[in-house]
Write a structure and sequence with these properties.
Layout (H helix, E strand, L loop, with lengths): L6 E6 L2 E6 L5 E6 L2 E2 L17 E2 L5 E3 L2 E4 L2 E4 L9 E3 L9 E6 L2 E8 L9 E10 L2 E10 L10 E2 L14 E3 L2 E7 L6 E6 L11 E2 L9 E4 L9 E4 L5 E4 L1
Antiparallel strand pairs: 1-2, 2-3, 3-4, 5-14, 6-9, 7-8, 10-11, 11-12, 12-13, 15-18, 15-20, 16-17, 16-19, 20-21
Length: 241
């Protein structure tokens, strides 16, 4: 039995990734035998949100309640301990292959209207591996007949190398972060990272810093990319842009 459904393997230039039918999930990513993300076995139910695609919202909606276009909506609360609606509606949906080649796969998913989210979206996720690594693109088309609220995000757990996360070095070129409440991790306000434990503009060891925040004010390179890196003490690492 494969709880995550069909397994779609893509590979090129010493990279190999496996994407699943359930949730369009990145189940594994390996370079020359070294895992670059914390994956899971094909016989497992995906642990929480590991590698999932988050849409039509990432993060938390307090008590599952929001207002859009003057109408109040109530979503199911799936983070019960904090009474939040967390990470969207498509992460357990069936994502159907539209195109599958040795080095890339495109998957599609229609989100039908439902209680709490009476809007229709057609989502497309494309994963490709090249000599530069894994590329992921998520797009959404509003195929309904009214405006729809929308947000999205990937959710990979990158792995720098052996050892503990606490011992890894993080470089994150962001000058602001979104402060959250300590109990429910709900957003409060943007704050500067300067003078706080969340300032990783200069690479440093993560240590016991608690990080479950959104960052912004990103410094970008000549290609317009913001690059975040984690390095393990033995020199291996992962970059996300």
């Amino acid at each position: 039995m494969r709880p995550s459904g069909e397994q779609y393997r893509i590979e090129a230039a010493d990279y190999e990734a496996v994407i699943t039918q359930v949730g369009g999930t990145l189940r594994s990513l390996v370079h020359q035998g070294r895992p670059l993300v914390a994956g899971f076995d094909e016989k497992e139910v995906r642990p929480l949100y590991r590698g999932a695609l988050l849409a039509p919202w990432p993060n938390r909606i307090a008590d599952g309640r929001y207002e859009f276009g003057g109408t109040a909506h109530q979503l199911p609360v799936n983070e019960v301990e904090r009474s939040n609606a967390l990470h969207g509606l498509v992460l357990w949906n069936d994502w159907t292959p539209v195109r599958h080649e040795p080095d890339r796969i495109e998957l599609g998913c229609r989100l039908f209207p439902r209680d709490g989210y009476p809007f229709q979206l057609d989502l497309s996720a494309t994963y490709a591996v090249t000599a530069d690594g894994l590329h992921c693109e998520l797009t959404a088309l509003n195929s309904g007949d009214s405006d729809a609220p929308y947000g999205c995000g990937p959710h990979p757990y990158v792995v720098a190398g052996r050892g503990r996360v606490d011992d890894w070095t993080l470089e994150l070129p962001a000058n602001r972060y979104l402060d959250v409440t300590p109990d429910r991790l709900l957003p409060l306000e943007e704050k500067p990272v300067e003078g706080t434990p969340l300032d990783f503009r200069t690479p440093r060891v993560i240590g016991d810093t608690f990080i479950d925040h959104a960052f912004t004010g990103l410094a970008r390179d000549g290609d317009g990319l913001a690059r975040v890196t984690v390095l393990s003490p033995d020199g291996t690492g992962v970059e996300v842009s």
